[in-house]
Amino acid sequence: MSRPQWQRLARSRWAVPSLRTPLGASNRLPTARATFSTSVRRELMEMSGFTEEQLTVREAISHICSKFPNTYWQERDQQERDPKEFHASLAKDGWLGIALPESLGGAGLGISEATIMMQTITQSGAGMAGAQAIHANVYATQPLAKFGTKEQLETTIPNIINGTWRTCFGVTEPNTGLETLKLKTLATKADADDSYLVSGQKIWITCAQVASKMILLARTTPLEEVQKSSEGLSLFCIDLDRNQPGLDMRKIKKMGGRAVDANEVFFDNYKIPVNTLIGQEGQGFKIILHGMNAERCLLAGEALGLGYAALEKAAQYAKDRVVFGRPIGQNQGVSHPLADAYMKLEAAKHATYHATRLYDADSVPSHAIGVACNSAKYLAAEAAFTACERAVLAHGGMGYAMEYDVERYLRECLVPRIAPVSREMILNYVSEKVLDLPRSY
Ligand SMILES: Cc1cc2nc3c(=O)[nH]c(=O)nc-3n(C[C@H](O)[C@H](O)[C@H](O)COP(=O)(O)OP(=O)(O)OC[C@H]3O[C@@H](n4cnc5c(N)ncnc54)[C@H](O)[C@@H]3O)c2cc1C
User: Any idea where the Acyl-CoA dehydrogenase/oxidase N-terminal domain is (predicted)?
Assistant: First the structure.
């Protein structure tokens, strides 16, 4: 979908009144006001300062999400069933290509727009399950779009955008954890250099059960043979062909986001053609770094959406629930923690969209982008956790009931605290790279 097509689509379908209407004006977004499913009122989040394109994206995505009510996500979570209809709805209107180049059928927008898309998804009540069903298709395709060959791009990207293929991201390994540079999965040349044989194990690979493709980070030179551990890693875009020998996967039972699968993936001399290599052999770590900052921004947006969704539910419940002859929200012991959670979310929102602006700008030093994206992910994840926990507590016993959704949000909001990089590693990063303190590990 080209950019003009995308803009026409957004305008005509969702009737955004005027893209030139000043932000915060009262006549903005009437369509979404009617359709956004979880709102107490239209926006608890302050909407001033977003660009016209971000507002258009939010409007259109809200409309799609309104067809998937909380009961849909409750059932999917309980039954551990993939939300394939949701993925298909977004694909149908071209949203999976939001940040992919127009020349490849994408909308040619940036991570600023992709982040508000992901925030709108989680905030609609879809939570992390909704986000994770499409997340890798948006960010893991970034390095492919930038470094892939013409043939790779033309065969792969259109099929990911139109939803025929889903992709997953294969980085984490059980025995190396956050020490990515030590990862051991090995791809060795075979068949007179026509193919590689992959052996090793990945863990926590989201959507591997439903994906046709995996963006895989593997060693092409063993760790012992490289001078620097960042060398000898290569990135591939491979088929997940369950009929081929050497590939196995096992679902992990988990705490939240149960609608989407997370997996251990085992490779044992699994054959992949050489033309699955993205960019140059041995340059995989450098190639993937760009995508990692984008991923942090999307995760920050997802966390924010979850936090605002929880807070909206809590504020509504605190108004409705009467105990001791008055709404519980009249007690400052209930209202102040919610007000505090709101301010934390707003602060994290500014950090997040500041980071996306830097990421999308042309000439910002990579150090500044890295610090901003990591800080945003940290702050948004913490703010979301605060909001979700307080939302459960404000609901009292009902906070523990599936029907009120906030227990699901609390379970899910731990993901942005852990993945794709933990809070501790972001604190390590800022200590070292910003404060210039000695590396602690
Ligand atoms: C729901 C979910 C979905 C995921 N999806 C994907 C996916 O699709 N693809 C993928 O590749 N991965 C995925 N992951 C993996 C995720 O990125 C990792 O779990 C995460 O990077 C943490 O790695 P680890 O679990 O190995 O933690 P470990 O490295 O074992 O760390 C454990 C704990 O020790 C702390 N720690 C470790 N070293 C230090 C240190 N030097 N200083 C301070 N603290 C330290 C960490 O912060 C953490 O709290 C997913 C994880 C989850 C939970």
Answer: 51-163
Beta carbons within 8 Å of 370's beta carbon, 6+ residues apart: 293, 429, 433
- Tokens 């419940």 label which residue? 317
Do 301 and 115 contact (CB within 8 A), yes or no?
Answer: yes
335/415 Cα distance (integer angstroms): 26
Q: Is 429 inside a domain boundary?
A: yes
Beta strands 186-190; 233-239: pairing state: unpaired
- pLDDT band, residue 3 (cuts 50/70/90): low
Distance, in Å, from the CA atom of 117 to the CA atom of 114, rounded to the nearest integer, reads: 5
CATH number at residue 107: 1.10.540.10
The reply to whether ligand 1 has any atom less than 6 angstroms from the CB of 273 is: no
In the DSSP assignment, the letter for residue 125 is: I
Percent pLDDT > 70 in the chain is 90
pLDDT digits over 365-378, tens only?
Answer: 999 999 999 999 99
Place of tokens 């102040």: 336
Structural domains counted in the chain = 3
Residue 130 to residue 401: CA distance in whole angstroms? 20
Task: Answer whether 381's CB lies under 8 Å from 300's CB.
Answer: yes
Q: Tell me, yes or no, whether 438 lies in a domain.
A: no
User: Domain residues for 273?
Assistant: 167-283
Q: Is the pLDDT of residue 10 over 70?
A: no
Angle (CA) 156-158-160 rounded to 5° is: 70
Ligand 1 atom nearest to CA at 171: 11
Residue 24 lies in a domain: yes
What φ, ψ does residue 243 adopt, rounded to 5°? -85, -10
- Give tens-digit pLDDT for 258-299: 999 999 999 999 999 999 999 999 999 999 987 899 999 999
Question: What is the maximum span of the chain, computed from C-alpha positions, in angstroms?
Answer: 81
Among candidate residues 407, 376, 383, 408, the one with its CA nearest the CA of residue 259: 408
pLDDT(144) > 70: yes
Tokens encoding 198: 């992959």
Q: Closest ligand 1 atom to the C-alpha of 172?
A: 11
What predicted TM-score, i.e. pTM, was given to this entire model?
0.92
CA distance 284 to 324: 62
Dist. CA 362–CA 353, nearest whole Å: 16
421 lines ligand 1 (CB under 6 A): yes
Cβ burial of 423 (10 Å; 0-12, 13-18, 19+) is middle
Ligand 1 pocket mutation, candidates 258, 422, 441, criterion most atoms within 8 A of CB: 422
